[in-house]
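debug: dumping io for the single-chain case to check the tokenizer round-trip. Nothing else runs in this session.
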Amino acid sequence: MLSGKSILITGGTGSFGRAFIRTILDKYQHINRLVVYSRDELKQFEMRQTFTESELPKLRFFIGDVRDKERLKRAMERVDIVVHAAALKQVPACEYNPFEAVKTNVIGAQNVIEAAIDQGVKKVVALSTDKAAAPINLYGATKLTSDKLFVSANNFKGKSEIKFSVVRYGNVMGSRGSVIPLFLKKRNERVLPITDERMTRFNITLNEGVELVLFALAHMWGGEIFVPKIPSYRLVDVARAIAPGCELKFIGIRPGEKLHEEMITATDALSTLEFEKYFVILPSTRLWDVDRYMEVFNGKRCSNGFSYSSKTNTDWLTVEQLRHLIREHVDPDFKVEETSVSDEKKRSLKIKGPDENPKEILAVSESGGQDSKPV
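debug: decoded output
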């Protein structure tokens, strides 16, 4: 699929970009070249040091911003495949800097699309987020707009053979700015900040995210939004997995934050197909034969009233499963303090609310017990 191809990834020095590039170099040694496009020269310098002398000749490092279409066009010369991962992703930052979020996430998406068409790129896969489904914050709204742009790009590509598709998934375990690195850092303080005890999220590892993009590149017909079937977790279970002896301080939901995330709304489901390990949200303008698509990939239409939410998901991570994933994908040296676990077995876990008044809840066992189930 990638043999002899030239690939460009925007946001290439981010968490996903580094994992994607590592996978490509390990599994697809016959690629032509791999272009790392990002705006941070220090991250590019540091990233360059992690590759061997035999790997470096296949890599190109381009300083550039997705807001700059001319620079994108130059970087995309003789490129076959583009993976668009660049974005402003932090919800509070986007709420506070809305114009910047629009410039990067919306105008930047348009620039990537137009540059790819102009330069004869064959395939483009854009990364999305669960926050783009029924968005209540600016980050989600900009990513929903970006999704619409990439899907609709298939309508105005003219005679070009290019295809555009999107992959949408939930929180990436251990990515920069996410909750797990925060909890690992703060557990020595003996108090962990929790926004709301009811909060749930989807979970995907970096490697799973990379494999989803590669799957989309191999199977895309153009215009699909690929949504993987992935597990959910409760935020309090993440805290219990990392530091079972710590107090939990509820600090309230941040601006633009949801209690639960969706990846497919009930309205989306009317135009969604289900497959064994993923869903596909169809483009609003039909680009190909949907019945034929279902036949080729062995799919079916979603049932009436279906939605895909982190709250109503049927696949849940237990406390012990979360610990295993943290060791495997975030911190191989991670371990739970035995004294904390012992203390937890002997007493109830104290949780502090915003008023600093502790309230008692049942302690969880090592395996997560009944408290691993959704609220």
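debug: round-trip ok. The chain is about 35% helix and 20% strand.
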